[in-house]
Amino acid sequence: MHVVVGGASGFLGTALTTHLRARGHEVTRLVRSVPSAGDASVWDPAAGRIDQILIDRADAVVNLSGSSIAKWPRTKARRAEILSSRLASTGTLAKAVAASSTPTVFISGSGMSWYGTDRGNEVLTEDGSPGTGFLADVSQQWEAAAAPAVEAGARTCFVRTSLVLSKDGGVLALMLPVWKLGGGARLGSGRQRMSLISRHDWVRGVEFLLEHDTASGPFNFAMPESVTNAEFTDILGETVHRPTFLAVPSFALKAALGGLSEDLLGSLDIHPAALTDIGFTFADPDLRAALGSALT
Q1: Residue 176 counted as domain residue
Q2: 79 Rama class: left (phi>0) / alpha (psi -120 to 50) / beta
Q3: pTM of this prediction?
Q4: Does any domain span residue 55?
């Protein structure tokens, strides 16, 4: 397949591009400035500019573009950037896909925050109700921005990504130095559910959706079983051979991090029902396997 990827230089985009090429697919990266390599094409999502001929010739388009949600504080300007960067990139690509004479496959990024920040022990499949809050609103608008592609008949999939595990980036890269120094700690009560996926399975999952002729709609990208924060803390400690007897009280997190603490103390039990129903098999189905994959 010839796959066009927006956000190809990011934590997930880099891994996906490498994986697809290793599997024999041709990948064109969308970039914001004049490319130095022949595998890239310039686009300007904020202005809605893209090479329509490139999209016409592609077999699939994957959009992972969007400003990081991890930076803090989330000022009014920062929140506007988080939302606008996702709507502009998704809208530009969705319109280009819709304008193609033979609409290509469209894989659009999304997040588990579609369900909100804290749903307790509620099991959340793709049939679950939408959540509330800033990140939930971002994810819901993000998916809605793909409407032109859906309405044009393009096979469109929404990847609702949970916490992705890899030593090269994301939440695990931030945690490892602390854990290796013996500073690993349970957050709050430790009872909140954490939904996770190895980066290896994440890229495999996207490839699976690209190649599955009938896959469409939302897909939760998370391991079949979530873990509690306490379980995660203990297993990561065992994996790096360090004690994890510390705990950070909820009030201390709230005092230090403000609204960001909600992302850490909230509970989301995401299940990949739609993905497993169409035959996807996880290479890293549990936390120990996912950490083993993430740390190699």
Answers
A1: no
A2: alpha
A3: 0.95
A4: yes
